[in-house]
Hints:
Blueprint: E1 18-25, E2 37-46, E3 51-54, E4 60-67, E5 70-74, E6 77-81, E7 85-89, E8 95-99, E9 106-113, H1 117-123, E10 127-129, E11 132-133, E12 135-137, H2 141-155, H3 162-180, H4 190-205, H5 212-218, H6 223-233, H7 238-256, H8 261-267, H9 273-284, H10 288-295
Antiparallel strand pairs: 1-2, 2-9, 3-8, 4-7, 4-9, 5-6, 5-8, 7-12, 10-11
Amino acid sequence: MSQNTPSESLPPFVSRQVTEARRFFLNLDPSRQAALEVVCGGVERMRAEYVIDRKDFPYFAVELVAEGEGVLAISGEKYALSAGSLFAYGPRVPHTIRNRADNPMRKYYLDFVGTRAAKLLQSAGLRTGAKRYSAIAVGGLHELTDIFEMLIREASETGPIASSISESLTQLLFLKIQQLRLPKGSSMPRAYTTYERVRRYIEENYLVLDTAQDVADQCEITSVYLSRLFSRFADCGAYQFLLQRKMNYAAGLLMNEGLLVKDVAMKLGFADPFQFSRSFKRVYGIPPTRLVSTGQ
């Protein structure tokens, strides 16, 4: 189903206390006997007054805080939520989620059912008993948000294998949670929140950014601190990350739009096609002319 579902037609368990949302609804009448079935999911930005106080919920759910702060009360415990917090709940498990009004949350969520659901949550450290759930902290936040974004995209597609792809991505999500889970009592470093903010800015503005200094200036940090952030949390430097985004876009123009190398170079703001070709080869290992010939 479409991501842009009107508010009045949303299922009753979906919150209306949001300022923006992208959602999918894959199967609202799933088989509880299946091994794993994805019901729905998405990403939402909370209103300042956001409060969820449930006594029950029809499915299992996992939520990831990407931005902002809040508080979760579940299984007799309270957990402070911030970027990198991950938590879950299930049927017949009361829980309360409150937003911090001066720093609203943006959260990804996934609802699912199946005979494997409880085991997936338990293996991830999110379920510790029949009706006991907890919150954990994860590193590599962007790795999990990437999987959630893939889920939103793939589950929104029509076709006979959308459900199978979504179930496979759900299993991948839980494997990554196991890999990225931080030791109990740990929290996401404040520096990581800054890194995520900078990374997201690059992803949204790479076409108008030319250098790492441009990134630092626009994000109001020093170039030295920018370098430290990417050395600590990424597998490449800030400029390399920017260049990758530019060249990914360039590859699409070359192969899908059929543009000439010189036209792509001009569109991306390179001084000449040679400089563009050198940058392209730096990322992909081949010159753009070879990519064009391969795609024809």
